[in-house]
Amino acid sequence: MILSFLRRRRPNDVIEDLYQRVARAARQPALFLELGFPDTAEGRFEALVLHVALIVRRLNALSAPAPDAGQDLVDVMFRELDRALRELGTSDLAVPKRMKALAGIFNDRMRRYAAAVDAGDETELRRLLAVRLGEPAERHAALAAYVRASAADLDGLDFDALLQRPDPFPPAVRFVERT
């Protein structure tokens, strides 16, 4: 009986696993090599924010306890960002200020991405991506297609499927425009 208890997964482990899968999706090489994210700390942050925002959007649309899991996912992301800032040598006094700024950025991005996806507003989605990535909106058709397809895939998942799916996002390389 004790062994079965030890084998059971805690809810936090499930959210940690989900975060790792989302973070892995946000690091797909095609996102950086082909779809416009700069391979910089800021670009990696933008890719992570986009992916977490899409997952949280879906979790918030589901019934309880899914929205709580979405908040737990955001908490894990910020715990990892805090750790990363400290590893990069950010001072203990500066970390809270940086985290507050990152939280504001994340909340704004999450709200705007969700609104554009929910409205099916391709123009706004491309504009948001262009603002974040610094290129003309026309250059982001493939990335916008990736975002729309990701959101549609996630919208087809229930809570359990979302938590258990090994790859919550489609391969970004599928959306690379071939010229």
From TrEMBL:
Q: Tell me the ranges covered by the Ubiquinol-cytochrome c chaperone domain, including all copies.
A: 34-164
InterPro entries, per the entry: Ubiq_cyt_c_chap (IPR021150), Ubiqinol_cyt_c_chaperone_CPB3 (IPR007129)
Please name one Pfam family that this protein belongs to.
Answer: Ubiq_cyt_C_chap
Superkingdom is: Bacteria
Q: Which family does it belong to?
A: Belongs to the CBP3 family. Belongs to the UPF0174 family.
Official protein name in the record:
Ubiquinol-cytochrome c chaperone domain-containing protein
Q: What is the lineage of its organism?
A: Bacteria, Pseudomonadati, Pseudomonadota, Alphaproteobacteria, Hyphomicrobiales
